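Researcher: For the annotation table, I need structure tokens for Signal peptidase I. Please keep the output clean. Sequence:
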Amino acid sequence: MASKSEGGIGEMARTLFWALIIAGVFRTLFFQPFWIPSGSMKDTLLIGDFLFVNKMAYGYSRYSCPFSSADFSPCPIEGRILGGEPERGDVVVFRHPIRNVDFIKRLIGLPGDRIQMVNGVLQINGAPVKLEDGGTFSEVFEPQGPEKRYPLCRNEPVGEGGDCQSQRFLETLPNGVSHSILNTFDGTRADNTPVFVVPEGQYFFMGDNRDNSEDSRFAQSIGGVGFVPAENLVGRADRVMFSSAGKSLFFFWTWRADRFFKAIE
């Protein structure tokens, strides 16, 4: 006859088992938590933003399951199933085509598009996008997040604790989606690129922080992203749940009150 303690341990194990199963199903089918570790999407997303990725938006692929990689996935799916098409301007989490890590960027180029940067201005199918002055983006020049990286400043040099500035513009894509972008430096290799023709079944992504982003403007062989296959899309980022300016999400005294449930544009 089992003792009360043995029965209690067994009940706890069963509860934990089903809790993990439910959490795994929820994370696989509906929403995946994601934390912003870098400044590549400023000022749309800040280091320390915490969000849930909508996995229903584009359907499911081998990368929908937790612990999936290019070599193994618990999800035996070929291509994508049950999904809608991503739209230009969506903020998307995707699996890097080479490195087994998730990235978050803005979808700029659809299959068949011709994408180019000319003097810092995005060109889509030969036409420049609309840009409007968005003022100045300012932040404190100090280590940010767990990696303790300093931000890039247009007004450098800036001393510790000083006002670090970048130009901000409102960029409007051909389908009418508008969002802010940052410009820190002029005349970089990212400001003038060749024409990229997006292959069928793949996408072209860029960070909103244009001078501080590893994205499709750079080949995978030199640390970039290159073109991203459709099956690598994980989901769409719709809303910031909360945000921490400190080095840990658990430092609640560093949470940014103005970013609770903030819609991602």
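Researcher: And a one-line annotation?
Model: Residues 20-27 have pLDDT under 50 and may be disordered.
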